[in-house]
Amino acid sequence: MIIRSLLDTDLYKFTMMQVVLHRFPQAQVEYRFKCRNAGVDLTPYIDEIRAEVANLCQLRFTEEELDYLRSMRFIKSDFVDFLALFHLSEKHVAITPSEKGGGEIDITIRGPWLHTILFEVPLLAIVNEVYFRRTQPAPDLAEGRRRLEAKLALLKAAPYADCVIADYGTRRRFSGAWQEEVLLTARGILGAQLAGTSNVHFARLHNMTPLGTMAHEYLQACQALGPRLRDSQVYALDNWAQEYRGDLGIALSDTYGFDAFLRDFDLFFCKLFDGVRHDSGDPLEWGERMLAHYASHRVDPRGKTLIFSDALNIPKVIELYERFRGRCKLAFGVGTNLTNDLGYTPLQIVIKMVRCNGQPVAKLSDTPEKTMCDDPGYLAYLRQVFAIQPPA
What we know:
Blueprint lengths: L10 H13 L4 E8 L10 H11 L6 H8 L6 H9 L7 E5 L7 E8 H4 L3 H16 L5 H16 L8 E3 L8 H15 L3 E4 L2 H6 L10 H10 L6 H13 L5 E3 L5 H7 L2 H6 L2 E4 L4 H14 L8 E4 L5 H11 L4 E6 L1 H4 L9 E8 L2 E2 L15 H10 L7
Parallel strand pairs: 4-5, 4-9, 6-7, 7-8, 8-9
Antiparallel strand pairs: 1-3, 1-10, 2-3, 10-11
């Protein structure tokens, strides 16, 4: 089995799932899979992927795992009680060759949001691991270790002693075993410079800090769940703050594009949230604009955290650290470059929500190729409502 624990996913899946249980338990959603790599044929692996999904759906949370979740101060007891009864169901997932051909596959997840939200990350990890164990049956682990140790040594070198990173690489990892080795190696070399991991399973096993707050799907769903489309981002942030009462105070800034985020992220939210996460667009420009936005609202940015998490590698981390250190608090989430850098081209695969309660939803990324929506009319309407120009 590739996935051996339902905790083998990102923390923000649980934090969002708790909000869904308490505020949107009847929401119905649809997710779609996309591989951004050209020329990758995944069709030979469909049966193996299906078998791994069937294994995933046999898993239940153990008492030890539930006790671990219960120990987090922002996880509520009724949510843990619900998880004690929870399991994923195969009936919500369809995996087929794409009608487009060319080796593409379609993966569609449909059903209650509460019962499908935990599919995304392990399913992506399954696709990755099946693909790489079939295409690289004898992986060059020595090369992977050499690359890993070189990048960690670069970060460890002075004057970067207070530059810390976290592992955000579960969904695109080479394998579960490799991610675990990466984490243990990074902790051994970096010490306190490794802030933790988004992976709850490995955080529990190895006494690391689990990290994460919200993802795009939460803000996307609020396009269908809120009272008015134009207010959906504010609605999402308000509901989050009411649920967590000061915990998990990092807002995601690019679901509707950064310009729309800044319009909505007013003085109230500037003071209420601990910081903001970057996930698309130019990170240097984003950071400068975010600090200026805080200053324009008379909020000292030195007390706020900027988290960078978009396709980072260690040289990029260092560049961003050198630009912004001393001007704010900083955190860096490194994903694929940590957990899938053995000399092979990693898969750029995603699973994104495309509908909620029968209505199209979309992510208007600051990186145009990250925008995902299967309804062009709705996408145009969303741009109009949030005053976002289409890409040139």
